[in-house]
TrEMBL record:
Gene Ontology biological-process annotations: DNA repair
Family stated for the protein in its record: Belongs to the DNA repair enzymes AP/ExoA family.
Pfam family, one: Exo_endo_phos
UniProt cofactor note: Probably binds two magnesium or manganese ions per subunit.
One GO MF term attached to the UniProt entry: metal ion binding
Active site: 106, 147, 248
Cofactor: Mg(2+); Mn(2+)
InterPro entries according to UniProt: AP_endonuc_1 (IPR004808), AP_endonuclease_F1_BS (IPR020847), Endo/exonu/phosph_ase_sf (IPR036691), Endo/exonuclease/phosphatase (IPR005135), ExoIII-like (IPR037493)
Positions that bind Mg(2+): 7, 34, 147, 149, 247-248
Domain Endonuclease/exonuclease/phosphatase: 4-248
Species whose genome carries this gene: Chryseobacterium soldanellicola
Record site feature (Transition state stabilizer), residues: 149
UniProt name for this protein: Exodeoxyribonuclease-3
Site entry: Interaction with DNA substrate: 248
Length: 257
């Protein structure tokens, strides 16, 4: 089973890119972030024609998350992260697919640091960790997947010394990511490629993609129940080079199930 995550950076504007990648890559489950479209403008007709069912939580102008599945039933669990009833940002959606809990997330960026946006990011992470701890305690086959907006280690960023005070790389968020791993979650891509330079995002500016000056923000974390099922994975970096592509590239794994 192939499971992928892709920050599309505007699903309607980049729909041809998404559909082309779906046709070529043929993932069974796909989590999307940054739909940048209100609920009623999600292109469900085109997604269905591509062979996928979907659930989504849209939002005008920014944010927005979705889960797509091919020939598999999607049972929605929740479409917001518990813990703050006043948080209206569309950043989380959770479903059960093929007896797995799929937690699709678009974690806040947090910049500029310091400031209220960084404080919001830390609070969001705190709520997220509470939910992930519940999943661990229930011993469920679960996947945390999406754009974490966290650069976990110096290996995951071009010239890390330039990022020390960026909200993506601050000590606080890197520690939070390591806390997830200590609880038993497995960073699937880093496990498969422990020493390799792997990026999932390249800025549109300064010819970052041409220079491979990227960062790794998009992660797929497996609960202990699924670790032994991990077969392979990677980043479809070439998609970032397509015309009118997102600044992220799709990241995927294959599970033996």
């Amino acid at each position: 089973m192939k499971i992928a995550t892709y920050n599309v950076n505007g699903i309607n504007g980049r729909l041809p890119v998404l559909l082309k990648w779906l046709q070529e890559s043929k993932p069974d489950i796909v989590c999307l972030q940054e739909l940048k479209a209100p609920q009623e403008r999600f292109p469900i007709k085109e997604i269905n024609e591509a062979g996928y069912q979907a659930i989504w939580n849209g939002q005008k102008s920014w944010n927005g998350v979705a889960i797509l599945a091919k020939d598999l039933e999607i049972v929605e669990v929740q479409r917001s992260l518990p813990g703050d009833s006043e948080d209206v940002q569309s950043r989380y959606i959770e479903a059960i697919i093929d007896k797995m809990v799929i937690c699709c997330l678009y974690l806040p960026n947090g910049n500029p640091y310091p400031g209220p946006k960084f404080d919001y990011k830390l609070n969001w992470i705190k709520r997220f960790k509470k939910r992930t701890n519940e999943l661990i305690k229930m011993e469920l086959p679960a996947i945390l997947i999406g754009d974490f907006n966290i650069i976990p280690t110096p290996l995951d960023v071009h010239k890390p010394e330039r990022w020390e005070n960026d909200a993506l790389y601050r000590t606080e968020v890197r520690k939070a990511y390591q806390d997830l791993l200590k609880k038993g979650w497995l960073d699937s891509i880093r496990t498969l490629y422990p020493d390799e330079k792997i990026y999932t995002f390249w800025d549109y500016l300064y010819k970052a993609y041409d220079r491979d000056a990227g960062i790794r923000l998009d992660h797929i974390l497996l609960s202990p129940y699924l670790i032994s099922s991990l077969k392979s994975g990677g980043v479809d970096k070439y998609v970032r080079g397509w015309e009118k592509s997102s600044d992220h590239a799709p990241t995927w794994i294959e599970l033996d199930k």
